[in-house]
């Protein structure tokens, strides 16, 4: 069997087009341009790819993009001062502080300082808590994108066996919460899980976010399962160049899975599309308007 490849690029493009149309209408009817401020501290190579794609797609969707690139030595106080300034800026509806941050800065404190209404990453405890209890919130982008991709294969996830490999606050845990909300039966596996391979093999939907290049092999996958590969890993490629691979061994998985997201072209583009959708949503809610669903 050869798995169907889930086209994250195409779905992301359709979401971005919808954001662009809604943003144009918002500008025409209310004179509001949703603004996204992104803060990058230091020079993490993975983060730079993200920033580059993000700025381009933000402006293409008709949103305003405010980039703040700070040196790696930036103090925590200086970063917190910038976050407070962005909280107070009426042109800024969404704030994203790129993670990871350099060691002198406490990421929890930075996230806690972001106005929850502008927290388009959905990392603030207020948004994380709202997601858990099922209240309206800004939902983390990568988890939102991952579940939207799974739903292209299974529009109704009710009763399906879902395994999430990884329990980080930014990916694994919110993915699990979204799958619970979709009425899947959810198992969260991590580095202390016993017999990981057997746990993964139970999954109808396997979402992998471990940050280990090609760790999940074909033998870990139930025949016909849907595999959502969140991993973005840069590994040495041919003639000195690097290439991107996921956390799943794509070649092996293709032989077993029913459907799989590629890397690149899977979850990555969806993360950015959902970020733009969250920024539009934040701008509309800030102005007392009802945002569309995506
Ligand atoms: N596509 C996108 O837009 C995005 C992609 N990513 C990618 O997703 C991946 C995960 O990111 P993130 O959640 O931030 O990573 P973290 O490092 O924060 O979390 C990794 C999780 O995987 C678990 N884990 C690590 N090694 C193993 C192992 N050998 N066996 C079982 N479990 C293991 C850890 O377990 P434990 O908790 O026990 O330590 C942890 O829960 C990365 O490749 C990252 O680059 C991230 C964000 C966005
Ligand atoms: N506060 C915060 N929020 C994040 O969401 C966040 C973060 N920090 N730090 C870094 C990670 C990583 N991340 C990516 C998003 C999109 C692509 C992406 O667009 N990937 C494309 C293109 C890759 C390429 O250009 O080759 C793809 O997979 O097809 C990659 C990586 C978001 N992250």
From TrEMBL:
It catalyses: (6R)-5,10-methylene-5,6,7,8-tetrahydrofolate + NADP(+) = (6R)-5,10-methenyltetrahydrofolate + NADPH; (6R)-5,10-methenyltetrahydrofolate + H2O = (6R)-10-formyltetrahydrofolate + H(+). InterPro entries: Aminoacid_DH-like_N_sf, NAD(P)-bd_dom_sf, THF_DH/CycHdrlase, THF_DH/CycHdrlase_cat_dom, THF_DH/CycHdrlase_CS, THF_DH/CycHdrlase_NAD-bd_dom. Residues 140-284 form the Tetrahydrofolate dehydrogenase/cyclohydrolase NAD(P)-binding domain. Signal peptide: none annotated. NADP(+) binds at residues 166-168, 232. Gene3D superfamilies: Leucine Dehydrogenase, chain A, domain 1, NAD(P)-binding Rossmann-like Domain. Residues 6-121 form the Tetrahydrofolate dehydrogenase/cyclohydrolase catalytic domain. PROSITE patterns: THF_DHG_CYH_1, THF_DHG_CYH_2. Keywords: Amino-acid biosynthesis, Histidine biosynthesis, Hydrolase, Methionine biosynthesis, Multifunctional enzyme, NADP, One-carbon metabolism, Oxidoreductase, Purine biosynthesis. Its EC number is 1.5.1.5, 3.5.4.9. The keyword Oxidoreductase applies. It holds the Pfam family THF_DHG_CYH_C. It comes from the Bacteria. Pathway: One-carbon metabolism; tetrahydrofolate interconversion. Homodimer. Catalyzes the oxidation of 5,10-methylenetetrahydrofolate to 5,10-methenyltetrahydrofolate and then the hydrolysis of 5,10-methenyltetrahydrofolate to 10-formyltetrahydrofolate. HAMAP family: THF_DHG_CYH. Belongs to the tetrahydrofolate dehydrogenase/cyclohydrolase family. This is Bifunctional protein FolD. It comes from Terrihabitans rhizophilus.
């Amino acid at each position: 069997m050869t798995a169907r490849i889930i086209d994250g690029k195409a779905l992301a493009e359709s979401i971005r087009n919808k954001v662009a149309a809604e943003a144009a209408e918002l500008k025409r009817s209310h004179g509001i341009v949703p603004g996204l401020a992104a803060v990058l501290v230091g020079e993490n190579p993975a983060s730079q790819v993200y920033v580059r794609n993000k700025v381009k797609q933000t402006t293409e969707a008709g949103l305003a993009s405010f980039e703040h690139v700070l040196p790696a030595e930036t103090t925590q106080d200086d970063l917190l001062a910038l976050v407070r300034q962005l909280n107070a800026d009426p042109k800024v509806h969404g704030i994203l502080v790129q993670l990871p941050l350099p060691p002198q800065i406490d990421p929890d404190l930075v996230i806690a300082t972001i106005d929850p209404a502008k927290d388009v990453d959905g990392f603030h405890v207020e948004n994380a808590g709202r997601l858990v209890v099922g209240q309206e919130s800004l939902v983390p982008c990568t988890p939102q994108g991952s579940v939207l991709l799974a739903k292209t294969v299974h529009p109704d996830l009710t009763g399906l066996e879902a395994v999430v490999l990884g329990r980080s606050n930014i990916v694994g845990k919110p993915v699990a919460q979204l799958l619970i909300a979709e009425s899947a039966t959810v198992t969260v596996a991590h580095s202390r899980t016993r017999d990981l391979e057997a746990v993964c093999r139970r999954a109808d939907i396997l979402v992998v976010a471990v940050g280990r290049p090609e760790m999940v092999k074909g033998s870990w996958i139930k025949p016909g399962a849907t595999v959502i590969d969140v991993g973005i890993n840069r590994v040495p490629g041919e003639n000195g160049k690097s290439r991107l691979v996921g956390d799943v061994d794509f070649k092996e998985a293709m032989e077993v899975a029913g459907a799989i997201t590629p890397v690149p072209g899977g979850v990555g583009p969806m993360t950015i599309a959902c970020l733009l959708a969250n920024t539009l949503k934040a701008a509309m809610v800030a102005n007392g308007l009802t945002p569309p669903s995506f």
